[in-house]
Specification:
10 strands; single chain; Muramoyl-pentapeptide Carboxypeptidase, domain 1; 13% strand; binds zinc ion; alpha/beta
């Protein structure tokens, strides 16, 4: 199946063209806006100073807003490994969803289908690694929670987009809510760092970090507590 892409350009981008090898990440967002039309208007209005490369509508239609070789303004303050301001190195996809503030709901089948086709195309074109397919909440965990726990990361990974673990479901369930030791907490921090999370002591919002890790990899329970399940998932992901 091929993907049809409509065009509705946004004026919100940096005019200097970037080189191909600077496109290293794919960042996934939800709009968090109640109304789809208003979300599109905002992303294409000069006043808002925000944009994305691609917008995925509820009906699955994809809109190109900023061409890949220009920097769109979607991530804001962000960190991953030794990099900051991820806009410079990424392609941003906004998927329409009301978001946690306005009635977070499942992404539509059509959105998931189009997102898979779109991501595949981008990953192939720029040779982006699966470890570099990230949530906005991964790179800005202090202040963002999108695209949230209803985003189907597992299905995407089955389609070779992004990473996932293949740990046994029964084992995971057994380890859910099982307390960890102080040593294991230190291990968790080590794994999170290795995965790429910006774990800096000075400005560490630990609860938010753990919640966002869970939103991404353990959507069944987002309580911000490190249990054994979260620990072994983090270990596994850090090895990918
Ligand atoms: Zn976002």
């Amino acid at each position: 199946m091929t993907l049809k892409i409509a065009v509705n350009y946004s004026p919100n981008f940096s005019t200097k063209r970037r080189i191909r090898k600077n496109i290293k990440f794919l960042l996934i967002h939800y709009t968090g806006m109640y109304n789809e039309k208003r979300a599109i208007d905002k992303l294409t209005s000069i006043k808002s100073k925000v944009s994305c490369h691609y917008f995925v509508k509820k009906n699955g239609q994809v809109i190109l807003m900023v061409p890949d070789f220009y920097i769109a303004w979607h991530a804001g303050i962000s960190n991953w490994k030794n990099l900051k301001s991820l806009n410079r190195f990424s392609i941003g996809i906004e998927i329409q969803n009301k978001g946690h503030e306005h009635g977070y709901h499942k992404f539509s089948k059509e959105q998931i289908k189009s997102t898979i086709l779109l991501c595949r195309k981008i990953l192939k074109k720029y040779k982006i690694k699966n470890n570099n397919v990230l949530a906005h909440s991964d790179v800005s965990y202090n202040r963002k929670i999108d695209p949230g726990e209803k985003f189907p990361w597992k299905i995407l990974a089955k389609n070779k987009i992004g990473n996932w673990h293949n740990l046994d479901q029964k084992l995971l369930k057994k380890l859910r809510k099982v307390k960890i030791s102080t040593i294991e907490k230190k291990e968790m921090i080590k794994y999170l760092k290795k995965i790429g999370y910006f774990v800096e002591k000075r400005n560490l919002k630990f609860l938010k970090l753990i919640k966002n890790f869970q939103r991404r990899y353990r959507p069944e329970l987002i309580d911000g507590k490190i249990d054994k399940e979260s620990l072994i998932i983090a270990k596994k992901i850090s090895q990918l």
